[in-house]
Automatic annotation (TrEMBL):
Organism: Stackebrandtia endophytica
Cross-referenced Pfam families: Ammonium_transp
Chain segments annotated as transmembrane: 12-33, 45-65, 95-117, 124-145, 165-185, 197-214, 226-247, 256-274, 280-300, 312-332, 352-375
GO cellular-component term (any): plasma membrane
Record membrane topology: Multi-pass membrane protein
Residue ranges constituting the Ammonium transporter AmtB-like domain according to the UniProt record: 9-402
GO molecular function (one): ammonium channel activity
Name of the featured protein: Ammonium transporter
Family according to the record: Belongs to the ammonia transporter channel (TC 1.A.11.2) family.
Signal peptide start-end: none
């Protein structure tokens, strides 16, 4: 089959948009941290993208998307051998699809880093990234999209990653937050306010833009499905903002940019698995439910005692699960091939969706916990208390995000290498 140039161009453009989400996430997370942790936060996103890109070419694509068994693919495409000239059934070159999916893998791992802001060693993050990508993300991508048991055998639906990406990353974030422990001084609110809200808004805008490639690009064609996914993505994000702000108002809080940004990301996460399976009204309903539930889920972390620094669990795990499960209620048969409960189907699809989420969450949480514990008791997972108090940026990276008087002015080179002495 010859190359369909229109579809190929759309997928390549979408891949570039998804790539932009990782630096967007770096800005989003960076603005939410303290000023002395910005560099470390951004470096975690960049390192995840770099490491996963190499792993994806070597083994990731092959393990996720080649024939194997219901649990894992094979290694027949090690190093992407043979993909440079092949074309899929829709006229899309396989190498273009592999590149598109590479960007998904990179952003998925980067999402986890928000849970351990301010306190995780950079070398520990690198080791965790390698282990989790290879042992969790690549197999789960196969389970859901590559012919594995969740997608092919169970028939669970996940158009662009509510289960494989967001619930998966959120579960790992919860495990890692438990292993590494609370930040010094947490949960004192005044000590952990976002240091740069405009940076958060900029990151949100880049994520929102990239999400159109994430969702609409998953159609793998420039067609009506891509158009529906794009519209559903937009209205779900908008509904998420309004719902989150409404909950804040009911809780006696004033509307703020951080709440609006959180609501937008929540809506985007929730619609990701369902964006091509529901009507726009259904997409708005998903955004409203996620936008109303997630702020309450975020508030639970203090009661439950785990320090998820940037609310990866409350947003990505919870919203990803909500969007995946609500497919069972809102799936339109003409779009999804199966009817949700509200469109004349039974409860069976809802059970399948919930089961898929439960399996992925349990697996990701368990393996992330094991990897985190191994790292903790070998090379160490957390910086020393004095380093955490002084600021992780200078110790881990010999840089400051801002050389301002509040940070002690321009730091000389010895101070950059010895932040404890600066303190």
């Amino acid at each position: 089959m010859s190359v369909n140039t229109g579809n190929t161009a759309w997928v390549l453009a979408s891949a570039a948009m998804v790539l932009l989400m990782t630096p967007g996430l770096a800005l989003f997370y960076g603005g939410m941290t303290r000023a002395k942790s910005v560099i470390n936060m951004m470096m975690k996103s960049l390192a995840a993208l770099a490491i996963v890109s190499v792993l994806w070419v070597l083994i990731g694509y092959s393990l996720a998307f080649t024939e194997g068994n219901p649990l894992i693919g094979g290694l027949s495409e090690f190093g992407l051998r043979g993909l440079t000239s092949t074309v899929g059934d829709g006229g899309l070159p396989d190498i273009a699809f592999a590149g598109f999916q590479l960007m998904f893998a990179g952003i998925t791992v980067a999402l986890i880093s928000g849970a351990v802001a301010d306190r995780m060693k950079f070398t520990a993050w690198i080791v965790f990234t390698v282990g989790w990508a290879a042992v969790v993300y690549f197999p789960v991508a196969h389970w859901v999209w590559g012919g594995g048991f969740i997608g092919a055998d169970w028939g669970a639906l996940d158009f662009a990653g509510g289960t494989a990406v967001h619930a998966n990353a959120g579960a790992a974030a919860l495990a890692l937050a438990i292993v590494i422990g609370r930040r010094i001084g947490w949960p004192r609110p005044a000590a952990f306010v976002p240091h740069n809200v405009p940076l958060v808004l900029l990151g949100t805008g880049l994520l929102w833009f990239g999400w159109f490639g994430f969702n609409a690009g998953s159609a793998l064609a420039a067609n009506g499905t891509a158009g529906l996914a794009l519209v559903n993505t937009q209205v779900a994000a908008a509904a998420g903002i309004l719902a989150w702000l409404a909950i804040e108002r009911l809780r006696g809080r004033r509307p703020c940019v951080l709440a609006a940004c959180s609501g937008a990301v929540t809506g985007l996460v929730a619609i990701t698995p369902a964006c091509a399976f529901v009507e726009p009204v259904g997409a708005m309903a998903i955004g409203v439910v996620a936008g109303a539930v997630c702020p309450l889920a975020v508030a639970l972390k203090e009661r439950l005692g785990y320090d998820d620094s940037l609310d990866v669990v409350g947003i990505h795990l919870v919203a990803g699960a909500i969007g995946s499960i609500l497919i069972g209620l809102l799936a339109v048969p003409e779009l999804a091939g199966r009817a949700g409960l509200l469109y004349g189907g039974g409860i069976g699809l809802t059970g399948i969706q919930a089961g898929a989420v439960a399996v992925v969450v349990a697996y990701s949480f368990g393996i992330a916990m094991i990897i985190g514990m191994v790292v903790k008791y070998t090379i160490g997972i957390r910086v020393a208390p004095e380093v955490e108090l002084a600021g992780i940026d200078v110790t881990e990276h010999a840089e400051n995000a801002y050389d301002l008087p509040m940070n002690g002015g321009l730091l000389d080179e010895p101070a950059r290498e010895d932040p404890v002495a600066v303190r």
